[in-house]
Predict the 3D structure of the following.
Amino acid sequence: MKELTLAQVSPASSILVNFIPLILIVLIFYLLVFLPQIKKQKRHREMMNSLKKGDKVITTGGIHGIVSKVKDDIAVLQIAENVRIEVSKSAIAQRTGGSSE
């Protein structure tokens, strides 16, 4: 069996072997950081598009309210009796309950 010496290894394969750890790190970083973030953004976008009257929501500022009207990219929230505010749909962090109707 013939053993390869360092001089016999081609420079192209040596460069490739040096980049394999870097490629693996990038792949792991993508799987652990970017992919979950992309899924989270998709779920948030779907939640914003499916908002309807009566949904209980919390805004990113911590305001709890009930959706009373949905316009293009604005949601009108009722936060108290006879108190309504307009917020951007993107400012709604989560839906806490279904319709209260």
User: Anything to note?
Assistant: The chain has two domains: 1-49, 51-101. The beta strands are 55-59, 64-70, 74-80, 83-88, 92-99.
